[in-house]
Design goal:
Blueprint (H helix, E strand, L loop, with lengths): L6 H10 L5 H33 L19 H5 L16 H27 L4 H24 L5 H15 L2 H12 L5 H8 L2 H16 L4 H22 L4 H4 L9 H7 L17 H5 L4 H27 L10 H7 L1 H21 L2 H22 L4 H31 L11 H26 L4 H18 L1 H16 L18
């Protein structure tokens, strides 16, 4: 299916009387893809905000480390607890577990769909695929909230709506990465994609604020408003998004520096040459040096990140902070600081990995540092609001840093690995493998949390710290290879220019 110039751009050029410039198209692509994936995450975040309304039980019997720090005056805290009747079937004794199963349904379908989305993107217009994914996501997100208006209490209705939303959302990431890759070269890839990847945290923050603000009108609106918003952004994408320079027939800006032009000759995602390149197989892509360890590392990184994504507002509203419980909306607003830290962490991880030319070392360092951050947030986060804010920000920075790095710069690096001999058709497959594997972890974490948290949040944090430890250990071999390569490069300076890829992707299989 041939890509066509978007109708909105045709109209703009007609009114303007001249074609749009290369630089303007780059800016337009960055803005539209940023808004697109931010809106995906805004709809994804809604469920975590509404959890405390659907299942409003305040669990005063939660276990803490150490327990004497958290013994509260029950009479004092009871006055701060505002209980509602909740929404059947989620307000029953097993409501927390049911909410975990809802998360699993969404993320499970999302992970499975991810493995097919890249393959589908090679055969259809990415702009159409992204538009359908966004409108479909908006429709089924709003349909989940419609259960309130139609007084639906059937668990399988909500389960089905989340599964369909997850299916449509799976087309988002491969599409936006492919479009950005068509327009931008790999110079300062970690920093540029670290900044661009802030759409994840921006979407989480905006989704939290919108959903929390809508709660006072009924939890249905917390789903309906983000659903309408992503559908509108999807229509904008349909009208304006150019998926590649060849689609609109423009040439590079004559004022581009020679070095920048050379860089543009090596895009993050090169368009496949018709009839010249054979698509890399699924098993073959797994054998690319670095793919397996980074994919498995992302499994545990996303397990941690998505547990916070789906359960942090619930955890905050069910934990006494400074001796009192926050309202559901206040907990939702406070949880956005985790994502603010995530923005900083993603940019910082990208910049450090560019400076060191060491993706694995950077990712592993962040994951190991996340372990004490999780421990301290659990112990001291309830002392006061100030402590909670500070520790939540640091935890978000360290948890989301490697997650952002692996899903963007690392995936692009490995998809253009030297062992492929220039075959550009591996990148979509590699991206799908890495993020798809990570998404399985994203499904497992929230599900386990739904069951474990009903007994002890301390056990949940133990699971998260263990996951961060395993994530870091999975990169040990690559870290050793990077350090060894750096030491060798210092002894033989000419060797440092032998490859333009990070040393983490240079090892032999």
């Amino acid at each position: 299916m041939l890509n066509k110039k978007p109708l909105g751009l045709q109209l703009f050029e007609c009114v303007r009387g001249s074609p749009i410039s290369f630089r303007s198209c780059q800016a337009l692509v960055l803005v539209l893809t940023f808004l697109s994936y931010a809106s995906y995450h805004a709809t994804r975040k809604t469920t975590s905000i509404v959890k405390s309304v659907l299942d409003p039980k305040k669990n005063l019997g939660l276990l803490h480390w150490p327990s004497h720090l958290y013994l509260q005056n029950l009479k004092g805290t009871e006055n701060n607890m505002t209980l509602s009747s909740g929404w059947a079937p989620f307000n029953a004794e097993d409501g927390t577990a049911l909410l975990g199963e809802i998360d699993l349904a969404f993320l499970g379908v999302y992970a499975i769909g991810m493995f097919f989305a890249g393959h589908l993107g090679d055969r259809v217009d990415l702009r159409i695929l992204l538009t359908i994914g966004m409108i479909g996501t908006g429709l089924f997100t709003a349909a989940f909230g419609a259960g309130y208006w139609f007084d639906i209490h059937n668990f399988y209705y909500f389960l089905g709506m989340q599964m369909m939303a997850g299916l449509f959302q799976s087309s988002g990431w491969p599409s936006v990465v492919a479009v950005v890759g068509n327009w931008f070269g790999k110079s300062k890839r970690g920093l540029i994609m670290g900044i661009w990847n802030a759409h994840t945290s921006v979407g989480n923050i905006s989704g939290s604020l919108i959903a929390a603000a809508m709660l006072k009108y009924g939890w249905c609106w917390s789903f309906a408003v983000p659903g309408i918003m992503i559908a509108l952004v999807g229509l904008t994408v349909f009208l304006l998004l150019p998926v590649g320079p060849d689609v609109i027939g423009i040439q590079e800006d004559l004022h581009l520096k020679d070095s920048e032009k050379a860089d543009m000759d090596t895009p993050l995602l090169e368009r496949r040459s018709e009839g010249k390149e054979k698509a890399v197989g699924f098993i073959e892509a797994w054998r690319i040096p670095g793919v397996a360890p980074f994919a498995l590392c992302l499994f545990f990184c996303k397990l941690v990140a998505y547990t916070f994504l789906y359960w942090l507002p619930f955890y905050i509203s069910h934990t006494a902070i400074g001796g009192r419980y926050l309202s559901d909306s206040s907990a939702g607003v406070l949880s956005t600081l985790f994502d603010v830290g995530g923005v900083v962490g993603g940019i910082l991880a990208g910049h450090i990995s560019d400076h060191l030319d060491a993706r694995a070392l950077t990712a592993a360092s962040f994951t190991f540092c996340a372990i004490p951050a999780l421990f301290f947030y659990r112990i001291y986060g309830s002392i006061s609001l100030t402590w909670n804010i500070a520790l939540m920000f640091v935890t978000g920075m360290l948890v989301n840093g490697p997650y952002a790095l692996i899903t963007t710069a690392v995936s692009a690096d490995l998809g253009t690995h030297s062992s492929l001999n220039g075959n550009s058709r591996a990148l979509a497959t590699v991206t799908a493998i890495i993020d798809g594997t990570g998404s399985i972890g994203a499904a497992v974490g929230p599900l386990l949390t739904g069951y474990i948290s009903s007994r002890s949040w301390s056990a949940v944090f133990t699971m998260l710290m263990a996951s961060a430890l395993v994530a870091g250990l999975l990169l040990t071999r690559l870290v050793v290879a990077e350090v060894a390569a750096k030491m060798e490069a210092r002894r033989t300076p000419d060797h440092a220019a032998a490859s333009d890829l990070p040393v983490s992707s240079m090892g032999e299989p």
